[in-house]
Amino acid sequence: MNQIKLFQPGRIGSIEVKNRLVMAPLTRCRADEAAGDIPGSAMNVEYYRQRASAGLIISEGTQVAPAGKGYMATPGIYSQAQVEGWKPITKAVHEAGGKIIAQIWHVGRITHPALTGGAHPIAPSAVKPNVVAYTHEGKVDVPVPQPLKVEEIKQVVQQYALGARNSIAAGFDGVEIHGANGYLIDQFLRDGANKRTDEYGGSVENRVRFALEVVDAVIAEVGAGKMGIRLSPVTPFNDLADSNPQAVFGLLIEELNKRGIGFIHMIEGATGGSRDEPGFDYAWARSTFKGTYIANNGYTREMAIDAVNAGRADAVAFGRLYIANPDLLERFQLNAPLNTPDPSTFYVPGEKGYTDYPAHA
Ligand code: PHB
Question: 222-256, pLDDT tens digit by residue?
């Protein structure tokens, strides 16, 4: 077992971790929506505490503003009450010997006014995605988003900065910027959603501008070593695509290097699906990026052990396996059988499928 690097201590950016298993960010829709999208119920605390043997937990996506919310009962990180709500969660993980960072999130066009307190969805351009939103009234088509004016873009950057500042105040060890899966930052990066003709659209230099402004604002709040960004260069998730992912994500990674950020967290392929989507060279990203490379998407125990031992990744993030296996580290170490996640309980209230998956021993 000693030669299995996945189970050995290391660093993710400047964050010291006791192993290289990462719990991926997972939307679970179990915050207190009536109280103002506040996390920190006993059940929320228990869910994260159970998973604290991961080297690093990345929180579920937490919206940086009311307009950044895209699903029912997702927690926020913009109000003082939300900060207070996160504190017992970060404390419980720390007391159990773990580390936890906040994923800060703005969904952009992937929402509906029924979820945002009436705010109209925003985006780089007025391009409607072919997606539905899940509201208390059921499934609804999302509207054509409102393109952001330049001064509004600056305000949204400040919302991410507030989310990062609040994350540290709430006791998180750092921050992951959600730059993946067709949400706001990804909408600026990829030309399927970004049709702007100003300094935020057109060339790849212009399309990475918003992402880098957010990165710079977050670095100013938490320091480069404690933060990173999740990217998904080729995922079709949320109806988004790009004509040349290697060019735009290649430039972005070169620029992230100049800033010395702690990590990139790469969804390799289609989110939760095929790893064989063409269009981006992850081996290039791994060898070019100077910080920690967290690999994600469909990794098994064997794939993860091999990837870290062979140097294709520094750490590996697991999503669905962490839903069903709170003690994933111990199961991997013993090569024990795994529980199977139940998708019908992913996004609904209650302890079933949340805190009731059994530990192995
Ligand atoms: C989801 O809630 O289904 C979801 C949220 C964020 C992602 C991907 C999926 O990045």
Answer: 999 999 999 999 999 999 999 999 999 999 999 99
Closest to 101 measured CA to CA, from 112, 113, 109, 93: 93
What are 51's two structure tokens?
Answer: 């998973």
pLDDT score, position 361: 64
Flag whether pLDDT at 189 surpasses 80: yes
Which residue among 30, 134, 181 has the greatest number of ligand 1 atoms within 8 angstroms of its CB, and so is best to mutate?
A: 181
Side chain identity at residue 256, one-letter code: L
Rounded CA gap, 145 and 136, in Å? 21
What is the best residue among 26, 28, 71 to mutate for testing ligand 1's pocket, by most ligand atoms within 8 Å of CB?
71
Nearest atom, ligand 1, residue 61 CA: 6
Question: What DSSP state is assigned to residue 119?
Answer: P
**Dihedral angle, C-alpha 65, 68, 73, 77, nearest 10 °:** -30
Catalytic residues: 183
Q: How far apart are CA 295 and CA 317, in angstroms?
A: 6
Torsion angle of the four alpha carbons 149, 151, 157, 159, in this order, in degrees rounded to the nearest 10: -100
Distance 207 CA to ligand 1 centre (A): 22
pLDDT at res. 360: 81
The per-type count for the chain, helices as H runs and strands as E runs, is 11, 14
CA-nearest residue for atom 7, ligand 1, is 181
Q: Write down the domain spans for the chain.
A: 5-315
The pTM of this model reads 0.98
Q: Which fold has domain 5-315?
A: TIM Barrel (3.20.20)
Cβ–ligand 1 contact at 245 (below 6 Å): no
Query: Is 238 close to ligand 1, i.e. is its CB under 6 Å away?
Result: no
Supply 137's token pair.
């009234």
Which residue has the least CA distance to atom 5 on ligand 1? 27
How does DSSP assign 214-269, residue by residue? HHHHHHHHH-GGGEEEEE-TT--TTT---S-HHHHHHHHHHHHHHHT-SEEEEE-S
What sign does the dihedral 22-26-32-37 (CA atoms) show? positive
Spatial separation of the C-alpha atoms in residues 188 and 184, rounded to whole Å: 7
Nearest protein CA to atom 3 of ligand 1, as residue: 27
Q: Which atom of ligand 1 is nearest to the CA of 180?
A: 10
